Amino acid sequence: MAKGGSKGSPAYLFSTGAWWSWRHCNLMCLNNETWSLNRLSFNIQNIVEVLKSSFFPRANVAPTELFIKWNNNNYPCAILNVDSSCLGSPIQANFGGVIRNNGSFFLSSFSSAILDSSDILLNELLAIYHGLILAKNLGITKFVCYSNSLHCINLINGLIVKYHVYVVLIQDIKELLLKKNVTICHTLKEENQCANFLAKLELPQTTIS
């Protein structure tokens, strides 16, 4: 809604445009990241459509059930799924992952904890890094890595931000990707249940400091 309580597409367009412009300004200042006008326009229009469909649902349209499960998306190679978790009080920061072949048969897995950390971004990056190391140690040279953290994937696939707090870790991941035939992709949380389970195992916080 826009100021004054007005409703409808113009109000959604105004408020969404203001929000995305503010976010883009933050990205430029903090992450040295610049978007094209086409990308900014696409993001604005996409959120406008989401708002319109949320507040003004189509009449006489039955809800559609979506059944989501792990799949290899027809990749003829090993599949690595990774995830992280920050739960509990005090916070327990864990991450984990699992490697399967394209027929879903288990090959290997890992689960680890971080000492005195509640940074979910660090967690997600470490999950990817340790998954790549596990694949390397197993001699797997061609595989697909799935993470449900789109932010991490964008950091890894994008240009290096020199002053990012985790620039060294991101660079280490990039170097591992260069040495292998690896594709890194985003996945939904629902398709990542095994990795999510491993990330939530009760582990003593002494593994990584």
Topology:
Layout: H1 9-31, H2 37-55, E1 78-87, E2 92-100, E3 106-114, H3 120-137, E4 142-147, H4 150-157, H5 167-179, E5 181-186, H6 193-199
Helix pairs in contact: 1-2, 3-5
Identify the strand order in the major beta sheet.
3-2-1-4-5
Number of helices: 6
Which structural class is indicated by helix and strand composition?
alpha/beta
Strand content: 15-25%
Assign the CATH superfamily of the largest domain.
Ribonuclease H-like superfamily/Ribonuclease H
Residues in helices, as a percent range: 40-55%
Q: Which value, in Å, is the CA radius of gyration?
A: 20 Å
Question: Can you name the CATH architecture of the largest domain?
Answer: 2-Layer Sandwich
Mean pLDDT: 80
CATH class placement of the largest domain: Alpha Beta
| Span between termini | 46 Å
Largest pleated sheet? 5 strands, mixed
* Apparent shape: globular
**Order of SSEs:** HHEEEHEHHEH
CATH topological fold name of the largest domain: Nucleotidyltransferase, domain 5
Can you tell me the residue ranges where pLDDT is under 50 for at least 5 consecutive residues?
1-6
Question: How many discrete domains?
Answer: 2
Count of distinct strands: 5
Brief account:
This protein has 209 residues and is an alpha/beta fold. It is built from six helices and five strands. The N terminus is likely disordered.
Explain what you see.
- With 209 residues, the chain is of the alpha/beta class.
- The protein has two domains: 9-55, no CATH class; 78-199, Nucleotidyltransferase, domain 5, CATH 3.30.420.10.
- 42% of the residues lie in helices and 19% in strands.
- The chain contains six helices and five strands; from the N terminus they run ααβββαβααβα.
- It has helices spanning 9-31, 37-55, 120-137, 150-157, 167-179, 193-199, and strands spanning 78-87, 92-100, 106-114, 142-147, 181-186.
- It has a five-stranded mixed β-sheet, sandwiched between helices.
- The protein is globular.
- The model is unreliable at 1-6 (pLDDT under 50).
